C-alpha cells in the first residue's frame, strides 16, 4: 500500500515537473496553448491568496477559522507550482512558467478531490500560523496556505518529508497531490478521445 501511494505521488510530481518544463496551458474545456505568459502566475497567485468566499462565490455557513480553500505551493528547480482547491470543488494549478490548468469544477473526480483537501485542512488549521505574507516556496519546499474567513493560516515543510510520510502534514500534501493526479487523469482521458 505504501509503495502504491508513493508511486502515485511520484507520478503526480513528475506531471507537475513536465507542466513546468513545457509551459502547457489548458482551459477547462481542454483547449491547449503551448505559448504561455509567466506574468500571469503572480496575478493568479495573488487572486487565490487574497480572495474571499464572496469573490469565489462559495456559499454556506462557516465558522471564523473553518477552511473554505487551500493553496499548496511547491518549489521545483524549474520554478514553482501552485495548487488551489476550494470547498465548492473547484481546483486550479498555476505554474510560474505561466502554464497550468484552471477550473476543474466540471469534473466530478477533481471536485471530490478538491473538497477532500479542504476537509483535511480543517484538521491541521489549528496547528498553523496566521499570516499576511506569502513567500514563494524555495526549491524542495512545500507551503500550505489555508483560507478562512478569519484570515490565511500557513505552515511549510520539506516536500521530501511530506511525500515520504515523515511529517505531520503529509496527509494534506497527499490530498493535494490527489487533485493533481485527477487533473493528469482527466488530461489522459481527453487525449484518448482525440
3D structure, described in words:
By secondary structure, the chain is of the alpha+beta class. The protein contains five helices and nine strands, in the order αββαββββαβββαα. The chain has one domain (2-193). Helix 1 crosses helix 5 and helix 3 (108-124) runs antiparallel to helix 5. It is globular, with a radius of gyration of 15 Å. The model is unreliable at 1-35 (pLDDT under 50).
For the terminal residues, how far apart are their CA atoms? 34 Å
How many structural units, i.e. domains?
A: 1
What count of helical segments does DSSP give? 5
In terms of quaternary structure, the protein is single chain
Topology:
Layout: H1 2-22, E1 25-26, E2 32-33, H2 40-50, E3 69-76, E4 79-86, E5 91-95, E6 100-101, H3 108-124, E7 129-131, E8 141-148, E9 151-158, H4 159-163, H5 170-193
Parallel strand pairs: 1-6
Antiparallel strand pairs: 1-2, 3-4, 3-8, 4-5, 5-6, 7-9, 8-9
Outline of this structure?
This protein is α+β, with helices and mostly antiparallel strands and 194 residues long. The protein has five helices and nine strands; from the N terminus they run H-E-E-H-E-E-E-E-H-E-E-E-H-H.
Features:
disordered N terminus; globular; alpha+beta; 194 residues
